[in-house]
Predict the structure of HTH cro/C1-type domain-containing protein.
Amino acid sequence: MKKEEVPQDKGNLSNKNMRELVYATDEKGNYTTALSTGWEPKTIALSNSIEEISERIAIAKEQVKNNEVSPICYFMEFSRMDIAVLSSYVGMWQWRVKRHFKPKIFAGLSDKILQKYADAFNISVAELRNFKPH
């Protein structure tokens, strides 16, 4: 896109008086940078993804409350991770992480294993073990 065509739609950054650096072409066709306050399609996509993440967090919280899954599942969603990412952070196979989602299995986990999860979520073992959704 040409530098003078860079979108200046109302976006997530415009409320904070900030602009995003984007690449555009100048009048000679060379790549250069330009500032944009937003682009409506990008704003819509970002809003939709944030809404979806919020829904997944709420579902996980409700599942913990109903004792359907362990707090590991909630903190994974809250930290915007998936099983593959969490598995790599804690250094365990994905099937093992999924197994730790089961409340009975979670209750028997050692502090050493819980510490790996706590470190991944940047919380304490006590916060992980004693998580009570409201």
In short: The longest helix spans residues 40-65.
